[in-house]
């Protein structure tokens, strides 16, 4: 018997017991016959179909509804490639398996693949966008259980720097009380519901400019609520989930208390943590009066590493350059430091598990009143 004849006989045998739509019937034989279109082959083999398809319950007749929904949702996003995932009722897959095992059909696409192919074909025809299953700009997930569609875009990365001109802003934003940062309806899926920190102000700006749901910040160092950040500002990186727009040109903006410089999209995130150095000015008060001349002793800090003991039991060495100092009153003075990475400034001044410290060198109880970053540089 020729291959065509075998297919004809077998499809007849299947149709005697089960009603199938053109797509499902064609799919069972299309690969065997080296053809492309399930639908066309099914049409040829299926002369007198009457009832709903046993396997898919005529799901293919309704695909336009979902494609319209995809077109609608995706019109809010900038993308050039896409991929599609679907969630089917398990009963559809079970019935597909029954037919395949009963008639010993091997090497054929499953119903799920077939539906995805059909949607992909129609969607790319309408949008001229490219299917990319490995790294798509946008992923559609159609849930046939509840007729819903989820649209997600690939994250983008941003880099920028900020200057802080007032001693009142926290660096980090408190998470949304309702969802602890995961994103919920209350916070419009941002994971934060207030915008009163550097993270909050920058996020709000980013949401307005390029859309998106959640911002994940990687800071190059940190400071106190009462610290200023001067010079070229502190660098930061953002991973932005579900952006609507994929690129942002260099943008700067000013708020009443911060200034954002050169915020723009970058191709990837650098390896964290990045190496950086900080230049810092710290105003210190001393319990005992300090002679101008004894301040000179502070310069010795640059000669040896400073040891920082962590609560965890770990210790690390830091080389700190104290390159200038200035007396203000007999009980107050300012120091200027340069060091790599972060430093627990208040502990370093006080001598709280840091040795040597400003207190130990001056032999007096010293406290950091405020400290400002004069510059932060990525190495
Ligand atoms: Zn079907
Ligand atoms: Zn929330």
Topology:
Layout: H1 3-17, H2 22-29, H3 38-45, H4 63-74, E1 81-87, H5 90-102, H6 111-127, E2 130-131, E3 138-143, E4 148-153, E5 156-164, H7 198-210, E6 215-219, E7 229-240, E8 251-254, E9 258-266, E10 276-286, E11 306-309, E12 315-318, E13 320-327, E14 332-340, H8 345-350, E15 354-355, H9 358-362, E16 366-378
Parallel strand pairs: 1-2, 1-3
Antiparallel strand pairs: 3-4, 5-7, 5-9, 6-7, 8-9, 10-14, 10-16, 11-12, 11-15, 13-14
The structure holds zinc ion (2 copies).
How many helices in DSSP terms? 9
Biggest β-sheet: strands ordered side by side in the sheet = 6-7-5-9-8
Instruction: Give the overall shape, derived from the CA principal axes.
Output: elongated
Q: Could you tell me how far the N terminus lies from the C terminus, measured between alpha carbons in angstroms?
A: 75 Å
Beta-strand percent range: 25-35%
The description of the largest β-sheet is: 5 strands, antiparallel
Residue share in helix: 25-40%
Radius of gyration: 32 Å
What average pLDDT do the residues reach? 95
Query: How many separate domains?
Result: 3
- How would you classify the helix and strand content by structural class? alpha+beta
Uncertain residue segments: none
What is the H/E order? HHHHEHHEEEEHEEEEEEEEEHEHE
The overall strand count is: 16
Bound molecules: zinc ion
Question: How would you describe the overall organization of this protein?
Answer:
- With 379 residues, the chain is an alpha+beta fold.
- The protein is 26% helix and 29% strand.
- The protein has 3 domains: 3-153, no CATH class; 156-266, Alpha-Beta Plaits (2-Layer Sandwich), CATH 3.30.70; 276-378, Alpha-Beta Plaits.
- It has helices at 3-17, 22-29, 38-45, 63-74, 90-102, 111-127, 198-210, 345-350, 358-362, and strands at residues 81-87, 130-131, 138-143, 148-153, 156-164, 215-219, 229-240, 251-254, 258-266, 276-286, 306-309, 315-318, 320-327, 332-340, 354-355, 366-378.
- The protein has a 5-stranded antiparallel beta sheet with strand order 6-7-5-9-8, covered by helices on one side. Strands 2-1-3-4 form a 4-stranded mixed beta sheet.
- Helix 2 (22-29) packs across helix 3 (38-45) and helix 4 (63-74) crosses helix 6 (111-127).
